[in-house]
Write a structure and sequence with these properties.
Elements: H1 2-11, H2 13-28, H3 30-39, H4 45-62, H5 71-92, E1 100-101, E2 104-105, H6 111-127, H7 134-153, H8 156-177, H9 179-188
Antiparallel strand pairs: 1-2
Helix pairs in contact: 1-8, 3-4, 6-7, 6-8
């Protein structure tokens, strides 16, 4: 499972890099997006339609693809479903034994691996790009809880896949976003405003 996870992550690395570039561009245009929100603060349909059009024009001119962030996750979903079906079929066949990882049976749910997977997801979100959107901050807390919930009922092999994948993502985030630089930038510029 660990080797397959690493291979899968290497295979989708180009999409992940594209996602990261798109999220960096999205951060760069945040001030312009806030200006548009202020300009079109009225909630009537005509104003909101103009806001949507200008927002899409801004994204196109900046080269931002709002769907680029979803692609790596969408590609992994069939893989997770495939793992689940493979594990289920192995459990149904007495000749196959899935085995254990650090004495945790991979064919059965594991609360320990589920919690580790949820915590790793939280670390992934903390090491990623800064989130200014309040709705995205809520997701930062909901997503790990969802992963723990799924991990508690699904076989531990899926939680192991998620843990290894998140370790790789944390390493990517540390290399690309360098979160320690953000703290030093804030202290040298007088802090966040």
């Amino acid at each position: 499972i660990i080797v397959v996870t690493i291979i899968i992550r290497l295979a989708i690395l180009p999409l992940t890099i594209k996602q990261i570039k798109s999220s960096k561009k999205m951060q760069e245009i945040q001030p312009k997006m806030k200006e548009l929100q202020a300009k079109y603060s009225s909630k009537d349909a005509v104003t909101q339609q103009k806001y949507q059009q200008e927002m899409m024009a801004l994204m196109q001119s900046s080269g931002v693809n709002p769907l680029a962030g979803c692609l790596p996750i969408l590609i992994q979903m069939p893989i997770l479903i495939g793992f689940y079906h493979a594990i289920s079929r192995m459990n149904a066949t007495p000749e196959f034994v899935l085995g254990t990882f650090l004495s945790i049976p991979l064919a059965e749910p594991s609360i320990l691996l589920a919690v580790i997977a949820g915590l790793m997801q939280f670390v992934v979100l903390m090491t990623g790009p800064a989130i200014d959107n309040p709705q995205m901050k809520v997701m930062m807390y909901i997503m790990p809880l969802m992963i723990i919930g799924f991990g508690v009922v699904l076989p531990a092999a899926l939680s192991l896949y998620w843990v290894v994948g998140n370790i790789i993502t944390v390493l990517q985030n540390l290399v690309i976003y360098k979160p320690w630089n953000k703290k030093t930038d804030a202290t040298t510029t007088g802090g966040a405003k």
